[in-house]
Design goal:
Elements: E1 14-19, H1 25-37, E2 52-57, H2 68-71, E3 73-77, E4 84-88, H3 89-95, H4 97-106, H5 113-120, E5 122-124, E6 138-139
Parallel strand pairs: 1-2, 1-6, 2-5
Antiparallel strand pairs: 3-4
Helix pairs in contact: 1-4, 3-4
């Protein structure tokens, strides 16, 4: 019996909807990356794009354990000399919670062109509303 390799899928993206309320950030990001990479499905093949999209709502209600709210920092460089900017996780959760969740999930995706395509199909929203009703996303229930 030979090894099964899934064919490259063409056509529509299957969109899933995940509610982040009450989730710990790292656990949410790990489960989300499994869905985007296709590892949550039985026909997983590493080099194939599985055409999965993920919409995460209620990013503002995600939790961080321990002292991470005050001790974890997110850094970005503006491109100018002396332009390294640091933001504490607490401030980022208050001002831009969707960026906090997006960075956690993208950090767990592959750093390749395929990973870039997967990250492009990740949509994160702070509140419970999203503009993707036309894609008819299926609710995704993951064990905690």
């Amino acid at each position: 019996m030979g090894t099964y390799f899934a064919k490259t899928r063409r056509g529509r993206v299957r969109w899933r909807l995940l509610d982040a309320e009450g989730w710990v950030l790292g656990r949410l990001a790990a489960r989300a990356s499994l869905v985007l990479t296709g590892k949550a499905f039985p026909d997983y093949t590493p080099h194939v794009d599985h055409r999965e999209g993920l919409i995460i709502i209620n990013a503002e209600k995600v939790r961080l354990t321990g002292k991470k709210l005050d001790q974890k920092f997110y850094r970005h460089y503006t491109g100018y000399p002396g332009g390294l900017r640091e933001t504490a996780a607490r401030k980022l959760l208050e001002t831009r919670p969707e960026r906090l969740v997006r960075e956690a999930v993208e950090g767990m995706l592959p750093k390749t062109r395929l990973g870039d395509r997967m990250a492009g199909r990740l949509k994160v929203y702070a509140g419970s509303t999203h503009p993707h009703a036309a894609q008819s996303p299926q609710p995704l229930s993951l064990e905690r």
